[in-house]
Amino acid sequence: MQFDPLFDEFAERDWQRTTAGTLRFAVVGLGWWTLEEAVPAIHDADLCAVTTVVSGSKEKAQRIAAATDGVERGLTYDEFHDGAGAEGYDAVYVATPNAHHLPHAAAAADLGKAVLCEKPMEATVERAERLRDACEDAGVPLMIAYRMQTEPAVRRARDLLELGAIGEPVQVYGNNSQSVLSMIDDPDQWRLDPALSGYGTSMVDLGIYPINTTRFVLDSDPVSVSAQMASVHDAFGDVPDERSTATAVYEGGVHAAFTATQNGYADSELSITGTDGRLTLRPAFHMECELTLERDGVTVDAGAADVNEMTEEFDYFADRVLSGDEIYADGEHGLVDMQVLAAVHEAADTGETVALD
Questions:
Q1: Three-class SS of residue 55?
Q2: Which tens digit of pLDDT belongs to each residue from 175-208?
Q3: 100 and 224 in a common domain
Q4: Beta-strand runs (E) in 72-195
Q5: How many Cβ atoms are within 10 Å of 10's Cβ, its own excluded?
Q6: Residue 322 falls within a domain, yes or no?
Q7: Quick one: 93 and 181 in the same domain?
Q8: Which of 112, 209, 273, 302 has the maximum number of C-beta atoms within 10 A of its C-beta?
């Protein structure tokens, strides 16, 4: 079995359909993630540009606009919803707290703009359905921002599974952990507020990474889940899952276990064991990713350290909008994760295994 071509062309953009054109973005929500990760990634992308920034604060929007190359306008949320400056952008990147995704995505759809929405898709299944419907009714493209799906290591892992590199997949282990209070020293931050974050904090913000990446590489969805959760730190008193574990059975009978915490050492991993070998992504989800293949006593390591996952994600979205080709992580795809997250929290509440339709 020959795997060399996959490693020789590790970082190749196997998804690319076009190299022509520029998709102009309005970025909605100017938190640290947008400013430190998203805007620089768009600036470095081949097919993208930021022309508009949108914030709840007029002063902040104008200040960021003035300080950012290529940005023509700084708008408030109300101005954005009213269509101010809509001729100056083609697509909208929504990176607000989860419970605010729907109104901004719906406003973009009403303006006829393509929508790239951060994950999780919204705070609840019902609100995610409304977001999907708003984009479908307006006939605009919708993509949920699963950057792992454009990470070369993840795409090569999927290719290797399809080639039978580890035989039949049997089981998966995934972990994603960080210390959110070390990152943002504020117990009142939105990730610890269920009115803004949704069902909880650790699974919806971190556990979604191994859950969704497993869906992508296996091309399979969970059919049942069980879970346990606990919150012990005072800052996590309003959310149920400072510490969380979920188990899932995916289509085809693959068993998976996922752990996530917002109050632990920063760590991430995804390991897929098959009948003949193992694929491991470690580190996995914290903006760097390395792939290891183990089989027949041989270990092969590979990574693409010079690839920015966010730049890949933005260029993929622009490629699909400009070419008119199908978007894989669309609203239906994002909605499945919302249903899984709701089921995980239900399972933790009831102590029962929850089946998914």
A1: strand
A2: 999 999 999 999 999 999 999 999 999 999 999 9
A3: no
A4: 73-76, 91-94, 114-118, 142-145, 169-179
A5: 16
A6: no
A7: no
A8: 209
Same domain, 172 and 125: no
Handedness of CA 206, 98, 27, 212 (dihedral sign): positive
Residue ranges with strand state E in the chain? 23-28, 48-55, 73-76, 91-94, 114-118, 142-145, 169-179, 222-230, 243-250, 255-261, 263-274, 277-281, 290-295, 298-303, 354-355
Which of 114, 147, 180 is at the close of a domain?
147
* pLDDT cut 90: percent of the chain above it: 95
Domain of 173, in residue numbers: 152-305+328-355
**Domain membership flag for residue 339:** yes
Three-state SS letters, 187-199: CCCHHHCHHHHCC
- Largest separation between any pair of C-alpha atoms in the chain: 62
**Do 140 and 157 reside in the same domain of the chain?**
no
Distance CA 193, CA 78 (A): 24
> pLDDT for 107-160, tens place per residue?
999 999 999 999 999 999 999 999 999 999 999 999 999 999 999 999 999 999
Are the beta carbons of 341 and 123 closer than 8 angstroms? no
- Residue pLDDT, tens place only, 3-14: 677 777 788 899
Listed residue (105, 113, 114) closest to 133, CA to CA:
105
Domain tally, the chain: 2
Q: Which of 50, 106, 118 is nearest to 81 (CA)?
A: 106
Peptide bond into 120 cis (omega under 30): yes
| Chain CA centroid to CA 183, Å | 19
The answer to whether the bond into 5 is cis (omega within 30° of 0) is: no
- Looking at the fold, whether 265 and 333 belong to one and the same domain comes out as yes
Q: Residue 1: is its pLDDT beyond 70?
A: no
Answer for the pair 119, 308: CB distance below 8 angstroms, yes or no.
Answer: no
Q: Which of 81-95, 156-170, 280-294, 299-313 has the lowest mean pLDDT?
A: 299-313
Q: And the tokens for 308?
A: 């920015």
- The C-alpha atoms of residue 52 and residue 68 are separated, in whole angstroms, by 10
Total count of residues recorded for the chain: 357
